[in-house]
Amino acid sequence: MKLVRLLKHWMLPGWRQRRIFSAPVLAAMETAIGQTERTHRGEIRFVVEKALKSRDILAGKTARQRAEEVFTLIGVDQTDEKTGVLIYVLLADGAVEIIADEGIDSKVGSTRWWELCRAMESAYRQKRHAEGSVRCIQVVADHLSRHFPARESNPNELPDRPILM
Questions:
Q1: Taking the domain 2-164, which CATH number applies?
Q2: Mean pLDDT (whole number) for 34-48
């Protein structure tokens, strides 16, 4: 099983990630994050990782474990109110994970995040990457707006631009 996964990660060409998440798609995602962050006090980051390193695959690292690492690596855990949310896509596995900091996670709960991940994976299987990504951003923002609505002072603590790794 590890060999099959290893081959999937090795053989996924970089151009595929750039074609799926083209400049216009990334711009639409960045715009969605920026616009929705005006309605809440949270921070949304979106990361698409093409594939894991061989050592991580051989060690059995899951998409969830990698998302948890990335959450800390890019500082989503550093927001003032603990309202950072990472939407993480591991393209080679076709996996989506949402890691939410304790402030928002305690309000929404793991079941809702899990359902949103599965909906996004479904959109991706239907080749609706842009639509699925923007819709996910909007749903995350709806949760943040409900529980942490914007205030007069609403600083943008993290960049809105999605990251391709």
A1: 3.10.310.50
A2: 97
